[in-house]
Structures are given as C-alpha cells and as structure tokens.
Predict the 3D structure of the following.
Amino acid sequence: MRALVQRVTQARVEVAGDVIGQCGPGLMILVCAMQGDTQAEAGALARKIHKLRIFRDDQGKMNLALKDTGGAALVVSQFTLAADTRSGNRPGFSTAAAPDLGQALYEHFADSLRALGVTVETGQFGAEMAVHLVNDGPVTIWLDTAT
C-alpha cells in the first residue's frame, strides 16, 4: 500500500460541495491500495503511521507521534498514487488494486487506525472529491509497504 502523509493544522474533504470528513490538528492521509496488497499490509501501514514521529515536542523537534499528540486523521482514497510515469506523458494506473479490493483495503486501513485509538474521518471511495488542507511545516512523508 502507498500513503502520502501530511501533518496538518486542519483538513476537510467535500463531495458535491458538502463536507463529508474533516479533522483539526493531525494527519491528512492519502491512501492507495496496490495489486497484491493484503489486510496485513493495510494494518501494518496504519501502525507505522500511528507511530511516525513527525510532530514537534516542547523543543520544536519532530519527536512526537500521532499517538502522543492525540491528533486526528482524515483518510482519503487516492488511486493516482499508483501512477506509473516511466514512459510517455500520460500516467498509467494498472498497478493499483481493482476497485473492490481497493475499497476494502482503504476501509481496513481506516478501521485499523481507529482500533489504535485515533479519531478518523474519511472521504468517499471512488467519488470526485475536493480536498482542502493546511499543511503544517510543511511536513509531507511518502510511505510504501513494497519498499
């Protein structure tokens, strides 16, 4: 699975102009299930992100994790993280998981974060969404369970 994690002061996702998910200080997490991914990988990715030390401590150093700050997460499906741009100018997405598996793994990832005690809101799988966020830092981290 792939995830793009952004430390945010706030984030929200809208579908057709309606806010369907939002969070205050915490993480905006864009998630993509790849072909061959499993629930075990989705759970491992959730645990990794939960413990990722990218929040400032009292001295301003990135020593705290989401689990330490009590921050929330907004999780949004993002199949374009599977983009293959090695040839031509049009990205290919054939390495992304099929939609039914992608949705199941996306939901399992969000549920795994919830099981760790994180307040999680989500986007709508497969929908045309508008995502708004204020990146804090900015801090943006790329994670891939395949590497």
About this structure: The chain has one domain: 2-144. DSSP finds three helices and eight strands in the chain.
